Amino acid sequence: MSGAALGLEIVLVFFLALFLLHRYGDFKKQHRLVIIATLLAWYLCFLIVFILPLDVSTTIYNRCKLAVNSSPAESNGSYVTLAPSKQKCFKPWSYIPDGIMPIFWRVVYWTSQFLTWILLPFMQSYARSGGFSITGKIKTALIENAIYYGTYLLIFGAFLIYVAVNPNFNLQWNQLQTIGIAAANTWGLFLLVLLLGYGLVEIPRSHWNGAKRGYLLMKTYFKAAKLMTEKADAEENLEDIMEEVRKVSESIKYNHPLRKCVDTILKKCPTEYQERMGRNMDDYEDFDERQNSYPSEKSLAKLHKQVIYSVQRHRRTQVQWQILLEQAFYLEDVAKNESSATRQFVHTFHSQEPENKIIQYFYTPTVEWYWECLLRPWFYRVLAVVLATFSVIVVWSECTFFSTKPVLSLFAVFIQLAEKTYNYIYIEMACFLTIFFLSICVYSTVFRIRVFNYYYLASHHQTDAYSLLFSGMLFCRLTPPLCLNFLGLTHMDATISHKNTQPTAYTSIMGSMRVLSFIADGFYIYYPMLVVILCIATYFSLGTRCLNLLGFQQFMGDSEMTSDLIDEGKELIRREKRKRQRQEEGENRRREWKERYGNRDDSTRSRAVHTDQKESSFSETNPNRSLSKYTRSNGRTERDRIELLQDAEPLDFNADSVNDDPLESDSGR
Asked: Quick one: where's region Disordered (predicted)?
């Protein structure tokens, strides 16, 4: 099993990252480089989280070997004997041979840092650029990132000057490397605590509120009202941009040098707008002899950028509106079926997507009723209590992990108890659950936050390239300090435990943080305590209330604006529900019409074909051409009558377009 666990997790984590990227990104429409860069960033970050417990168990086994194979006289203070067992240390099932983990962590860490600080910011600017050539996009990206990279150099220079001025340090390459790692981890830890404080409270609360059907339904109505406003704004913005494109397309003819740029812009427009605007390819105009003012290539690049953004936003709001409608209809069905005496779940509308036959066989209407109306609320409540317990343990450990005598961090207590018995399965499970919960609190906040319309991770393949790359940057910057914080909570980091023991392979590549003592002994220890204040602020929704006061509508039960938006969203959902019901009624009537008269038309058609065959055979043997002509005319009349019967469809009298006076309607005429 040596190294098998490492290889297995490498493969599983890759498919996990690929699955999440497929849910949020669009493999067909987005550039391959964007997909590959984002996938690599997500994959490396998830890989660090999943492999770190194996590093911890391997380190504990190595400590055990050193404690058993060495005596206090032989150690000379190099390693502290950790209560060696009389028996031989058992090798863990997931043991990784020596020399593999340092190389693995070095490759993973520096690759992720190269992505987050150099490649992904450049690709962000490249993806948002409206240039029409690769050279133009690269030039724009370099100009936009000049200030970005300059800030990094300034920060690194400040740390460098601090170390150079201090006479206790001699500048060496390892120390410079440690300064760079410390600067990156400090930036990441600053953001990590903010996101962690929000996730520790919001995740248990969201699962607890998930058991409240009325709460979820009211919040869905609120989202519907806000999304309708955003949807209308996106449609209006798209109309304005398309009007500018139409004017540019009409002014720049096909023989103009910039016509290729216009054609590139037109390809990014929706199909209906392309057909409406047209190309005007037949209208030749000698642009050199006219004194009209034509837009420059720079203005066309700006228009190209606006077209890409407006089309993506319009498509995203359309998809989100349909998803929100399905969610609202589902919650209304749950509220309606809770009082059902038959205990069978009845849907108002049939699913538009074909369901799996295996799921239909096991997930019957009766099973669905018991799960949705009885079991699911209790499951969410129990899960919320478990998550809240984990959150309390994390907050307590964040405030006390610096204490080594006595050990107050609960995670450190759990790991040390398992270390005494060398129960590697328990050690790995405890480490995995701890770091997995911390990662969920941080990463879920990254997926939830929205910075206006510039950064927004939307599911169902609706996330733009800029947001995907930005999420990859955040993951790569948050994961290393997250892992260091986890090792500090479990006292596996020698900087926290103050023990001269063998460090983990992960902390060994970070170098000794003693080069910057004010960060190692100050910021890394006391700044995480700020999570308590952030959790209190999140619990009382202080951020939501501040945004609401600034004019950004947030869901608050005691707000009059929230009540108005709930009523508006409820009316919108009711209107869409009536519209879909009319559509389904019309489709049902058409289906009944075909089922009722389809067999009759088929029998009539078969009789007509049989008659034609008999008449054609008779016409070949009978020289009487007048009779043959008469018979063929009867066949044509019969076929015409059959075609009229086939084309006839019932009228939908519930449609909104029905007019009482047929003379006032063109369709009536």
From this structure: 576-669
What interhelical angle do 120-128 and 134-144 show, nearest 10?
120
Angstrom distance (rounded) from CA 417 to CA 432: 16
Count the alpha carbons within 13 Å of 298 in the hemisphere toward its beta carbon: 2
One-letter identity of residue 473: M
Q: Which residue do the tokens 């066949």 mark?
A: 635
Domain total of the chain = 1
Among 319, 232, 349, 364, smallest CA distance to 583 is for: 349
pLDDT at 170: 64
**What's 295's DSSP letter?**
P
User: Token pair of 1, please?
Assistant: 């099993």
Q: How far is residue 629 from each of residues 470, 618, 622, 625, measured CA to CA in Å?
A: 77, 12, 12, 6
Contact status, residue 280 vs residue 255, Cβ threshold 8 Å: no
Question: Which uninterrupted H or E stretch holds 11?
Answer: helix 4-24
69/79 Cα distance (integer angstroms): 12
Question: What single letter denotes the amino acid at residue 187?
Answer: W
Are the beta carbons of 29 and 408 closer than 8 angstroms?
A: no
> What is the value of pTM for the model shown?
0.80
Q: Apex CA 321: angle with CA 317 and CA 322, to 5°?
A: 125
**Residue 92 near residue 61, CB atoms below 8 Å:** yes
pLDDT 10s digits, 114-173:
999 889 999 988 888 888 888 888 888 888 888 778 877 787 777 678 767 776 666 676
> Helix, strand, or coil here: 342?
coil
Are 70 and 159 within 8 A, CB to CB?
Answer: no
What does the alpha-carbon distance between residue 86 and residue 224 come to, in Å, rounded to a whole number? 67
d(CA 388, CA 22): 31
In DSSP terms, 450 is beta-bridged to: 456
**DSSP-derived secondary structure for 239-281:** HHHHHHHHHHHHHS-TTSTTHHHHHHHHHHS-HHHHHHH---T
DSSP string, 181-204: HHHHHHHHHHHHHHHHHHHHHHHH
Q: What pLDDT shows up at residue 132?
A: 85
What one-character DSSP code corresponds to residue 94? T
Q: How far is CA 315 from the centre of its chain?
A: 16
**What's the half-sphere exposure (Cβ side, CA atoms, 13 Å) at 364?**
6
Q: By C-alpha distance, which of 387, 337, 376, 386 is closest to 210?
A: 376
Write down how long the chain is. 669
β partners of residue 613: none
Q: Is 210 inside a domain boundary?
A: yes
Residue 58 Cα distances to 2, 95, 480, angstroms: 11, 6, 19
Dihedral angle at the C-alpha atoms of 344, 349, 350, 353, nearest 10 degrees? -130
Determine the average pLDDT of the residues in 15-29. Answer: 92
Crossing angle of helices 32-69/100-114, nearest 10°?
A: 150
Please indicate, yes or no, if residue 250 is contained in any of the structural domains. no
In-domain check, residue 5: yes
| Farthest CA pair distance, the chain | 127
DSSP state of 404: B
Q: Residue written as tokens 């305590």?
A: 529
For residue 71, report the phi and psi dihedrals to the nearest 5 degrees: -110, 165
Range of the domain at 2: 1-68+90-217+354-561
**Which residues 6+ apart lie within 8 Å of 584 measured at CB?**
349, 350
> What single string gives the DSSP state of each residue in 449-505?
-EETTTEE--TTT---HHHHHHHHHHHHHHHHHHHHHHHHHTT-SHHHH----PPPH
Return the pLDDT at 497: 72
| Chain centre to alpha carbon of residue 432 | 23
Q: Note whether residue 483 is domain-resident.
A: yes
> Euclidean distance between the first and final Cα of the chain, in Å?
81
**Residue 121, preceding peptide bond in cis (omega within 30° of 0):** no
